Structures are given as C-alpha cells and as structure tokens.
Amino acid sequence: MTQRTLIKNLVSSTDGPVSVSGWVETVRDQKKVQFVVLRDESGAVQLVHPRIFNEDGTPADDAIAEEISALSQGTFLTATGDLKHDERVKLGGVEIKLDGLEIAARAIAETPIADDSGVDKRMDWRFLDLRVPKNSLIFKIQTTFEHALRCYWIDNDFVELHTPKLMASASESRAELFEVEYFETKAYLAQSPQFFKQMAQPAGFGKIFEIGPAFRADPSFTSRHATEFTSVDAEISWIDSHETVMTMHEELMVAGFTAVKEKHGAEIEALYGLEVTVPTTPFPRIALAEAKRIVAERGYEVPRQDDDMDPEGERQIAAYVKETYGHEFVFLTDYASSIRPFYHMRNAEDGAVTNSYDLIFNGVEISTGAQREHRIEVLVEQAKEKGLDPEELDFYLDFFRYGVPPHGGFGMGLSRVLMLMLKLPNLREATYLFRGPTRLTP
Amino acid sequence: MTQRTLIKNLVSSTDGPVSVSGWVETVRDQKKVQFVVLRDESGAVQLVHPRIFNEDGTPADDAIAEEISALSQGTFLTATGDLKHDERVKLGGVEIKLDGLEIAARAIAETPIADDSGVDKRMDWRFLDLRVPKNSLIFKIQTTFEHALRCYWIDNDFVELHTPKLMASASESRAELFEVEYFETKAYLAQSPQFFKQMAQPAGFGKIFEIGPAFRADPSFTSRHATEFTSVDAEISWIDSHETVMTMHEELMVAGFTAVKEKHGAEIEALYGLEVTVPTTPFPRIALAEAKRIVAERGYEVPRQDDDMDPEGERQIAAYVKETYGHEFVFLTDYASSIRPFYHMRNAEDGAVTNSYDLIFNGVEISTGAQREHRIEVLVEQAKEKGLDPEELDFYLDFFRYGVPPHGGFGMGLSRVLMLMLKLPNLREATYLFRGPTRLTP
C-alpha cells in the first residue's frame, strides 16, 4: 500500500501514485466529471474522477462514481490515485485522479453549524467548528508561541513546575474560589500558582516556569473572562526590581512573536488579513499615575473610586502608545499599593506604590507582574493591613522565615495573547474548549 | 556593582573580583579562618575569611567575621570577594576570599527537618527538602525530559492542547471523580483528557499532545498513586493499529532518555549511583496472555479473578524481559476486552482482546495506550455492553457521527517515569507538591 502523504507535501511530490487521508469538504457531482475537495490537517486538495461511459454514451458501471455521489461532507476517507501537477488547478496547482476511496467513517448528512452560526451554537459543535482552517490555525499558532517561550526558558536554565491545582485553603482571596468535595474535607481549585511558584524561590530553584490551568469562580460574562484558563507563569530569584521581570517578559514576547511570524506569518495574512508585528525592546513603560494623566488629557476620566485603570482607560493609553511610539505593547508600572495584593513589594521611596506592572497588548491587559515582598516582617504587616489573618497564611509565610532570595515574576493569560494577536472578538474563539458560568460542555 | 555569577560558572571564570548569590549550607567558624559553603541553583562554593588580628595577637574589629559568626543555615545572601582557583579546595577547586556579605533574608535558626526525617515530615517542609541537590535534581531532569518530548512533537507537527479540567459529566466512570460546586450546578474534575483529546481527531487536528493535571478521587494509599498527577497525553489520526501508537511512544521515550542522559547523566551517577540507559527500539512486545504464561512458568500465579495483570506480575514479567532482552521497558499488548474501557478498539479477528497496551518500565506500569473504536455503531454497542447509558455519553458519541479518522493514543504518568528512572521509593519524591487522600498542603 502507498504511504499516506500529507496534502501540504503534494506540491513537492513527483507525479504518480499517491495516497492522501482527510475529510470531505465539498463534492461537485457533475455529469461528466466529479470533483471532491479533501482536507487534512495540512491543507486541501482536489480529487477528480471522470465518469465512465459505455460506447453508446450511457453511464457504465462505475463504483467510484457511485461512492462519490454518496459522499457526505465531513466523511473521513483515504483516497488513492495519480498525482498530477497542473497549474490550471486553483487549489495548490495539483490534483489527484482517483483510483479508489476507502471510507474510514461516514458523516451523517446533517450539518449542525454553518458559516453564519452564532458563537454559542458553534461552541456546542466545537469539533466541527475547528475543522475550519481559520479556527484550527489559532491552535497551531498557540503551539508555536508556547514552544518558543519554553525554548527561551530552557536556554536560560529555568525549571518547569507542575504546581498542584488542589489547595487546602484560598491562595489570594476567598472570593471567586471553586470548592471541591475532598474525601472528608473541602479543597479549593487554585486561582493561580502564585504561592507555589514563589515556594520554588526559598527552595533554591532560581528560575521557574509553568503553563497550566487556573480557575476563577467569576460569574461575570465578558469577552475577556473564563472560569478556567491557561496561565503562563514565571518566577525568578535575585532580581533588582520589577524591571528585571519586565526585561525577561519582553524577551519572551519577542521570542514568541518571532516564532509565530516565521512559521505562520503568511497563513495569518491569508486567513486573517493581519500582519504579525514582532515587538521591539524595550517595550514602552509608563507609570500608572502618568498614564491616567495622559488618558485624562485625551478627554477620558477613568470612572473609578480607587486608583486602578479601567478597560477603556487601557484602550486609551494603548492608543496613545501606538500613536506616539508605534508599539502594540505597554507596561503600566507602579500600581498603587491600595489595589495590589499584600505580597507585592512596595516602592522603597514611596510606599503608596508597588514594584509592579500590568502588560497591555493591543489595548487589553494580558498579564500582571511584580517584585514580591520577601522580608517577613513587612509581608506580615502588609497582610494585616489588607485584613488578612497571618495565621491562615502561615504555610505561605513559612517560605520567608527560613531564608528567601529577592524574587518576582508574572502570570499571563495565554488565550488573551492569542485573542489580541489575531484580533478575535472574544476569548471563546481562542480557547480549545471554553468554560464560562453557563458553559461546561462539550 | 559586580554582576552575579552562577556558581557552576566559577570554575571557568578568571581569578579576581566576583559576586555570587545563594543560601548558606554550612558555616565553619574557626579561630583563625572562617569558611562558609554557599549554594545556589547551580552548585556550591567555599567562601573563606581569614580573621583579622591586632599586632599583639588579639582579635581586631572585623565586621565580616561577626557577620559570619551570626549566619544561620539557609540564610540567603550575596557575597562579593576575590575568586581564586586552587586545586587543593575539594569543592570545585575554587574559593572566594570575602570582601563583603549582603544579607537578603536571614533564616531563623530552627531546622525543622534533618537527613533522617521521615517522608511525611519532609513533605511538610517541602521547600526546605528541595534545597537538597539530590531532590531538586529530580525537577531539572523532569524539565529536560518534558522538553525533549515536546521537541519531538513539535518536529513532527503535533498541536499542543489545553483541554478543560472542569467537565459537566464523568469522562469514564462515576467512581473516583471529584465533585466541584459550580454556580447553580455541579462540575467534575477530569480524570484524564481522554474525550477531549479524542475530539481533536474529528476536528481534523491530526496529531496532538498535552501535558497537564488529572485528578482521581482514589482513597488508596500506595507508593504509586496520587489524587492529582501530571498526565502526558498524545493522540494521533490515521493509525493502522495500536502498533503505530507504540512506535511513537517508544520514539518519545528514546528522545526523553537521550536528553536526560546527555544533560544530567554525570550528576545522576554522582548523586544516585545510577547509570541512565537510553532504551533501544523496538521495545519488547508481549501479548498479555503470553506474559501470564511466562510469569506462571516462573512460579507466580496472578491472584486475580479477571484477566488483568497485578503489580507483582508486572514486576515478574519485567524481570523476565530484563534477563532475556536486557531491556528496562516492555509493552504488554492485547489486553482482554473485559478489563478495558468501552472505547478501546477490539481485535478484528478476536473480539475478546483489544488493540491496546500498557507500557511497563522497571517493573511498574507507567502508561496505557490503545487504538480507539471509531465506528459509531460498534462504539455504542461496546458502551452498552459495559453498562453505560449511551444518552449520557451523547456529547462524546457525536464526535463519531459526523466523520472521524481511525485514531489512537496514550496517557502516561510523568512522576511515575521519574520515580522509576531514579529508582525512588515512592511518587511523593518525584512530585513537586504531592496530593493524596490526606495531603493537601503545603
């Protein structure tokens, strides 16, 4: 039997016997000749079958023709035939004249979703939705992006962690925590690997990373939130300030975007009409207070009681950065202590602000990073100030009592990066199987 | 200020001013000279300080000496001084004559664990336990192993998935499922990505992988089980049989072991007294019935009512394979249909056995793989036969109704591989933070 050839490799294959496997995208069942467009994970090709006629012009016995006429869209099959390069064929300049079809699994004739189906309906039938090349491309890009990040980390001697998602107590706040029945007790799903990745610092790991799930029982419906998401985390020892973390972070983004542009740039342009821009370093950095001033000058007053930015403010400052520096990224730094968690280190000169940042990409926050407070007395004080009970945090505080290096890191939402890179309308498009307050299936 | 040098790089550095950062492992506070062994993530180095005396022989003012005398084990600090190569120094042939110490965080003098502490006590203080080079090495090896697997997958055009861990219903059986309070309803934690990774096949992804957490509410206490573990999964389309899956699987193991041996072989030999063996391919394959016959010939009757192997049987067959073929791995194949899940494809000639396998490494099962049944009528029939209600499985069965390629894959426990590679006594040693029926902390 002929070995399967991936469809993308047909162009560089020599004419002659060939075997391809994939699913039926379209069938054109004409009187004299039949065409099938077969797609696999790498591309699509036209299969052609000239019908057979008797000498008197009546249709002859033709098993292949009958098979093709009975094909439903989505049927998975292996086709064997003669590969022929022909530049008149629009689809890749090749076609396969069929010798035979072997059906792996017939699709039922029903097509539950169409091009104009709403996103909810499409998510119900996600496995069909993902057959669309534009949609599956997202996950090929994600694969390339993640791999580039991991290669950067490996080259720089980071250790990969798999921190537990089951916890005995809350990591940050009791709000938005999922509760799990755990034998005779309760457990909680980790909202982030925060405490566990910090633990690697007093453990002497030096530099660590993790890409894994995180869970938030957030009942809100926005385009940017999910109850389960993939968190990209890194944490490093012996930093001078959050600046060290930002430097690593921007180098990672450059590595990721470079790999994506190289491997998928042409396809992204073809399917999304977008050119991927590899960001230049250093990314612009703007202290939050300054960012609010700039936004106010543009005529937007952030409607918040606290010192935080809001989504519209983030869009405005991103627009300013784009106009001024031609950059899609901006680090907003020096967030007020009042709106940051107790474990963010505060500025040595001005305790009202923290050594922390948010990374904004195309107008939306994708990440929060910071230097962590590693001085136990200060840490306990800051926890109390936030109304937390140090006793409940005891297992975490122990990490600091037995020696710890200065350290910091970031957490970043993977699907957010993809969403903003491809200018997708919401997170659901950038998630293999989305989970939200009312979505637990498929 | 002098840039930090990693301790492992001191040997190749030139003599002169140098700065290192790490934690205090030991202090030898002698009358004429003081020694500190400082360790970082890359190694350990001796810091030396000759005490200063007045002309009359009495101790002079000596701030560094006082600082050293006050050092507690575990204190994190930055040391600056003069690097000197001296082959008489046992620890790496270099030492640093101190100019100054900058304390990052003092450790309290207490040392909650010692060399002879029990494993439970050590797990309570895991961040201290991981400062021991032998223990942290495990996670460096794991990092290298995983990266080699991912590089193999990337080179072979696999797509990386992040499947949801929150599910609306059971994936395989209702037993051993953790239940989550999910807004107005219940969710369950995925025991494996089985259904979701299979979904990628009718979605046309071709080949996929995932390394992520899986959860089993298994109340048993064994050296091989955890309630949360890291599962290594792959699934591929257009296979001929489980043989295609086994070929990929053994190539992956070779890639992983080769990388580990190259990068950590010497250190594993030094700290564990073990030589890493890169397995040869093909791995031995033995049908389960034959394996039971061999084991019986060795005088061991598997004490089970069903057709399965037991742990002692796995050890026996592994011993046989080691003696006969000199191989640490063996694929046990053709497991009986009665003891395999409904979605395993059955042998075309003999429906009593499945196209499935377990991979045994050093006598313990580390993985289960199989060709999946992709013919919807057969699949529904097999589900019913196992007492499952096809309606409850409807979302899964849909994957097969709209066309699907023949496919198969495996799931493998990451910590098990590490445990058996390093001959560790239990899974807890090979897990960053172990989770068991009575362990949810730290």
TrEMBL record, chains A, B:
Q: Which residues form the Aminoacyl-transfer RNA synthetases class-II family profile domain?
A: 139-442
What the protein does comes down to: Catalyzes the attachment of L-aspartate to tRNA(Asp) in a two-step reaction: L-aspartate is first activated by ATP to form Asp-AMP and then transferred to the acceptor end of tRNA(Asp).
HAMAP family per record: Asp_tRNA_synth_type2
Q: What assembly does the database describe for this protein?
A: Homodimer.
Q: State where it is primarily located.
A: cytoplasm
Q: Which InterPro entries match?
A: Aa-tRNA-synt_II (IPR004364), aa-tRNA-synth_II (IPR006195), aa-tRNA-synth_II/BPL/LPL (IPR045864), Asp-tRNA_synthase_2 (IPR004523), Asp/Asn-tRNA-synth_IIb (IPR002312), NA-bd_OB-fold (IPR012340), NA-bd_OB_tRNA (IPR004365)
Q: Does the keyword Disulfide bond apply?
A: no
Residues annotated for L-aspartate binding in this entry:
172, 216, 368, 372
Whether Ligase counts among this entry's keywords is: yes
Q: What family is this protein classified in?
A: Belongs to the class-II aminoacyl-tRNA synthetase family. Type 2 subfamily.
Give me any GO biological process, just one. aspartyl-tRNA aminoacylation
Arranged from A to Z, the UniProt key words for this protein are:
Aminoacyl-tRNA synthetase, ATP-binding, Cytoplasm, Ligase, Nucleotide-binding, Protein biosynthesis
Substrates-to-products reaction catalysed = tRNA(Asp) + L-aspartate + ATP = L-aspartyl-tRNA(Asp) + AMP + diphosphate
Per the record, its GO cellular-component terms are: aminoacyl-tRNA synthetase multienzyme complex; cytosol
Output the superkingdom of the source species.
Bacteria
Localization, UniProt: Cytoplasm
What gene makes this protein? aspS
Where ATP binds, per the record, is at 365, 413-416
Q: Which GO terms describe its molecular function?
A: aspartate-tRNA ligase activity; ATP binding; RNA binding
The EC number(s) attached to this protein equal 6.1.1.12
* Region described as Aspartate: 194-197
Listed Pfam families: tRNA-synt_2 (PF00152), tRNA_anti-codon (PF01336)
UniProt name for this protein: Aspartate--tRNA ligase
